[in-house]
Amino acid sequence: MTDNLIVAQLPLLPDSLLPPKQTRKWADLNSFWQHPERLPAFVRDSPTVMRNLALLGPLDWATFPERNLERHWGQPQIPFAALAAAELIKLNDGCASWGKLHRYLVEHPGFIWLLGFPLQPAPNHPLGFNAQASLPTHRHLVRMLRQVPNAALQFLLADSVRLILTELAGLGLAPPECVSLDTKHILAWVKENNPKTYVTERFNKAQQPAGDPDCRLGCKRRTNQGAAPATPTRNPVSSQGLKRGQYYWGYGSGVVVTKVPALGEFVLAELTQPFDQGDVTYFFPLMQQSENRLGYRPRLGTFDAAFDAWYVYAYFHRENSPASGFAAVPFSAKGGYQADGRQFTSEGLPLCAAGLAMPLQFTFTDRTSCLVEHERGKYRCPLTPNRAGRVACPIRHVNAKRGGCTAVMPISIGARLRYTLDRQGEAYKDAYRQRTAVERTLAPARKCRCQQPGVGPGHRTTTPAQRPRHHQPEHPHLCLDQPALLAAPARPTA
After folding, report:
1. What region does 226 belong to: left with phi over 0, alpha with psi -120 to 50, or beta?
2. Plot region of 264 (φ>0 → left; ψ -120 to 50 → alpha; else → beta)
3. Residue 111 maps to a domain
4. Strand intervals (E) in 166-321
5. Based on the domain organization, do 28 and 108 belong to the same domain?
6. Same domain flag for 364 and 427
7. Total H helices, total E strands in the chain
């Protein structure tokens, strides 16, 4: 028997008396892609494995931000790179679930060796290891994938963009100049999103769903148009003008996509946030990612009407060449103004309804009306009021008896471009057509059933206990790396 005191002193032994640590050099897909002769015969003889190696091999897996594999985690050390590569294989080969991917990997044991999963020796097996025992269960694979840090997955996306730029330069093609941005909602797998489940105060944002502590309540769309609902009999309040919306618990994922003629459409940046964040909050983080990965600021940008903000226009404006860059955004009528509701002089002063230039009266810093702290100015009527406070307006405007018209707006050039942009010109129409690229990129999200609850014919409504939580705020759209990886260049020749 061993005394408890001796067991307590074992951790105090010096490292020289402890058994040496057994280290294993984890698989580097890029090295195997460049030197396929190092692969075992059963890996080289599998066309499916080699096809996926040709897809994933060009990425710089040697610098992948891996976790510490020397540490004893209490279980076999599975690299984050193996989980990320398995997810890409799942998407590329059309495995609809992790259970099907698990079976797919067992049927193609070359993947298990290639990706670096810990092998369970089996001397009686022709391959020397047990494929079934070398893989975690599909449920455990999902749990571990949720623990992969977002920086590791963003690294794969950034490196795929690097490969695309290298390929374009090798083909003599110009780098992308137009980007498009859009967001897509992702439902959390909680009972509050299940219309067939009775939940008291389903859309109370103060009551966090137990099935997903990270999701937030948000509104997909809201309108006061169309047929109004019937007025209730017990509380007869008219429903005319009542805003109606679609509310969900979940997340929102924004992506930036660019289109290269004759090659395809590629994702440049991705960001996922809780669903209570507005669309415009994605603009600056995603454009910063795109600029860092491209190495320059895109010349053109196209967005939907949700991004009709002055700072979007100001971002793409170039002082040295105003006509070369702009943001193609539909005008959203706010404050009662139309697209041509405001005219400006060549000096940037707004014109009143009578066509007179309105001088700047004063400026102030606005910290509340916009996401961006900015300087706003108040412009006033150029006519001098009389003692009664009236002005002699040539068109007898209704504001003449109150001292004339005033206008409060940002002094940035983006505020003027929002009104003066020629939305009927061919340049605007050509740029706005590029927005379909991001729509096509986000379309596969419908196949994941992450946008609508599955309550229609052919769908079995599930609860959080029945369905694992796949969509996390960290990386629900790892599939967005896939279009970029499809443009990987060919293997270099020796």
Report:
1. left
2. left
3. yes
4. 178-187, 216-223, 244-260, 264-274, 300-302
5. yes
6. no
7. 16, 9
Beta strands 178-187 and 244-260: pairing type?
antiparallel
Q: Are residues 130 and 190 in the same domain?
A: no
* Tokens found for residue 458: 């052919």
Return all residues near 304 (Cβ < 8 A) that are at least 6 apart.
Answer: 182, 329, 330, 435
Q: Which secondary structure element, helix H or strand E, spans residue 374, and what is its range? A: strand 374-380
Give residue 265's domain range.
Answer: 176-199+213-220+245-330+423-483
Pure H helices in 62-146: 80-92, 98-107, 109-115, 131-134, 138-146
- Of 411, 433, 455, the residue at which a domain comes to its end is 411
Distance (Å, rounded) from C-alpha 160 to C-alpha 166?
A: 10
Please indicate, yes or no, whether residues 341 and 324 belong to a single structural domain of this protein: no
C-alpha span between 165 and 117 (Å, rounded): 32
Pair 102, 186 in one domain: no
Residues 308 and 181: their CA atoms lie apart, in Å, by: 12
Q: In whole angstroms, what is the distance from residue 126 CA to residue 367 CA?
A: 69
Domain identity same for 273 and 353:
no
Residues 46 and 133 in one domain: yes
What is the C-alpha to C-alpha distance for residues 132 and 59, in angstroms, rounded to an integer? 28
Are residues 273 and 405 both part of a single domain?
A: no
Rounded CA separation 415/310 (Å): 5
- Tokens 């005191």 label which residue? 5
pLDDT in tens, the chain (494 residues): 444 444 444 445 455 554 444 444 555 899 999 999 999 999 999 999 999 999 999 999 999 998 888 777 667 788 899 999 999 999 889 888 889 999 999 999 999 999 999 898 888 888 889 999 999 988 888 888 888 898 999 999 999 999 999 999 998 988 999 999 999 888 998 999 988 888 888 889 899 999 889 899 998 876 655 566 666 667 666 655 556 678 899 999 999 999 988 888 899 999 999 999 988 899 999 999 999 999 999 999 999 998 999 999 999 998 877 667 899 999 987 766 777 778 899 888 999 988 999 999 999 999 988 888 999 999 999 998 887 778 888 888 888 888 888 999 999 999 999 999 999 999 999 999 999 999 988 887 666 656 655 444 333 333 333 333 333 333 333 333 444 443 333 333 33
- Give how far Cα 67 sits from Cα of 78, 118, 149, 412, 433, Å: 9, 15, 9, 46, 43
